Known about the structure:
By secondary structure, the protein is α/β, with parallel strands linked by helices. The chain has 12 helices and 13 strands. The strands form 2 sheets. The chain has a 10-stranded mixed β-sheet with strand order 4-5-6-8-7-9-10-11-12-13, with helices on both faces. A 3-stranded antiparallel β-sheet has the order 1-2-3. Helix 9 links the parallel strand 9 (285-294) and strand 10. The termini are far apart.
Amino acid sequence: MPAGKKPHLILIRCQNNSLVGEEIVQCGGRPCPPTLQEQALLSKKAIANVLMMLLAVVLVGCSNPPENRTESSGNTPGRSSGEQANKARNMQPLQTGQSRVRPEGPGKLSAVLPSQPGERLIGATGGQAPQEPIIERISGYKTGGEYFILPSGTFPQAMAVVTLPYDYETSRDKKYPLIIVFGGAGECAKPPRSGALAWMHYYKTDEAVYTLQNNHLQAEDFRGLVKPSELDAFNTRLEKQPYAGVILACPYSPLLSVMARLETPEYESYIMDELILALKNRYRVADGSVGVDGVSMGGARSMYYGFKYPEVFSSIGSVQGAFGPYMETYRELVRRNGDILKKRAIQLVTSDKDPMAPSVEKMHQLLEFHGIKHRYLTLTGPHDYIFNQGPGVLALLVFHNQALAQRPGGPVKRE
């Protein structure tokens, strides 16, 4: 940079205060004419930032979700009414006090052994197990939940929210599948404590878990976004495989960059070498029953992890996945791990008003080209929070419940 020029940062903010930065040069309080090299650099940064901001807008990153939650009345699970919003969500103790709870089992975390021959050994890198997590109970929801704060050696913002099955505290001898779920761009742009609440709070997973105890769904459970044929298909699947519950762990995740190769090594190491190991140590996770899923930007993440580590994840899903910028990465992973992926349960969910539908179609074509069986759902609704809270979360829970209870089979199913 020429002498006398001082860096200055222009900050562009969305409605939810997510940040995009661009460096320019200043000289004596007003912009200096940049050199040709500086102009080229600034153009590249400006393009990257604009693309990132546009992607966040498309993925609901710049629209604040409805904060209010409604409580159900009566004895029928999942039927919402009234205006009891966040007053029933007892979040204040979580902001002011922390309680350290020792994980179940030995005081020291042990390595998680692969459930199948040749599987990747989680937590083996570095030769040391993660430190003991900090647990903060979350109350005021229809099912139990916890903040799971893991001191990480690679990712300083390591925080997750765990949504527990409805009968987790009462069925002490029961083990459950574990599903790692990633939030969309809107939650990636939030602070870690809020971002980790993506599925439990913003997508109202607790209400879906509660209503699935009936093993029979109604139109209102989908927020009205369901056709009779879709409703019948869901209930038929529940009749064949009743919902038994899964453990959902939603880690805070940073925004993906459209200019990078999808994931950062630091965050990937946190997920694969630290978080899964620690979750298995604390919770009653069934052997060989770990899945991964996510919505929108989180769907791009979930397919990356599922395709890269199919020896770890037995079920792999995405809801309205934003795959577009990363298709070459997926192609490479599918070519590399196609034989194992053919033995995994895979689900792609899109909807009739989803702007990501062409991207999801490309992913479907990729899997179909390589002969990889998968479920392909086109449901009803927009690319928005109301879809996540209805068809999206129900499709996710029913799929992983069914996939991890039995091995996938049969041809590609498009519904």
